[in-house]
Amino acid sequence: MPDWIEQLDPRFASCVLPNAPLLTLGEGYAWLEGPVWFADANQLLVSDLPNNRILRWTEDSGVSVFRQPSNFANGHSRDRQGRLIGCSHRGRCITRTELDGSVTVLADRFRGKRLNGPNDVVVDSVGAIWFSDPHYGGNTDYEGGKHAAELPPTLYRLDPDGSLAVAADDFTGPNGLCFSPDERLLYVAESGAQFAEHPTRHIRLFNVADGRLHDGRVFHEISPGFADGLRCDQDGRVWSSAADGVHCIEPDGTLIGKILTGSTVANLTFGGRNRCRIFICASHRLMAVYTNVRGAQLP
Predict the structure, then answer these.
(1) What is the pLDDT of residues 204-239, one digit of tens each?
(2) How confident is the model at residue 299 (pLDDT cuts 50, 70, 90)?
(3) Dihedral sign computed on CA atoms, order 153, 154, 160, 163
(4) Which residue segment(s) compose the domain that 189 sits in?
(5) 147-182 pLDDT, tens per residue?
(6) Which of 23, 221, 257, 264 could form a disulfide with 202 if both were Cys (CB 3.0 to 4.6 A apart)?
């Protein structure tokens, strides 16, 4: 296998393609985040967060600017109507880009207090929007602008009727989110307090029933580094960001292999033909590699 594939368990051999190159699609960005694939347009959108813009990548045209300024957009997803759902650090809100290109603010307050700066977001099959709201967006001027937090770090659920509820509030830094293929499980990256000497960092796992979370527990601890963004494939494996690349974790919590990028990975998503290509936000580079798995069929 090439030196950028690290196999730790025989099960990983069937997940990767040694003859498929790990490519750099663009570089020189400030810090990439929030990738989301639009199969109908054959394009990837990704946040260049500190540069206050959303980039577009296509196979034919490469990287271009999709939106600037972006109000310091971070994580993204799509809803069941194909609209872009986004997290804004500076706006401290969740937004929806309508099909005509206009932007609607869906949530910016909880019980009269401003959100901190939503970080990552997923949409389930009934249209509920789940998003993490840590303090990261207001801790520095690099990713949106310092401000005093009005709410504790929280994981929220925004229902289709517009009601906003706490899904879980026992986090110090809720971050990336992804559902299992059957939506019975929700994985949440606990990235810890940003400047703590010994932050709590692991991937947590919750059972999901009737729109509520149950039985929260630790699923896996990433090393080196910590989990930021993560995605599931069709077979329920978790592909997580890490300090050395992308880690592949079996549903039983076993790390079976890595895609080594040579830099810290912030986030990733499946896309491309049959959702078998992983697009990787590798710090200041956008990378991609074809795999032998398919991403779970969720936005």
Answers:
(1) 999 999 999 999 999 999 999 999 999 999 999 999
(2) low
(3) negative
(4) 5-290
(5) 999 999 999 999 999 999 999 999 999 999 999 999
(6) 221
Place of tokens 């299992």: 180
- Does residue 296 fall inside a structural domain? no
- Supply 131's token pair: 């998003």
For 29-38, the pLDDT digits (tens) are: 999 999 999 9
Q: Phi-psi category of 283—alpha, beta or left, where left has phi over 0 and alpha has psi -120 to 50?
A: left
Residue 15 belongs to a domain with what CATH number? 2.120.10.30
Buried b (16+ CB within 10 A) or exposed e, 205-227: bbebeeeebeebeebbebeebbb
What is the side-by-side order of every strand in the sheet holding 245-249?
A: 5-7, 255-260, 245-249, 238-241, 230-232
Number of domains in the chain: 1
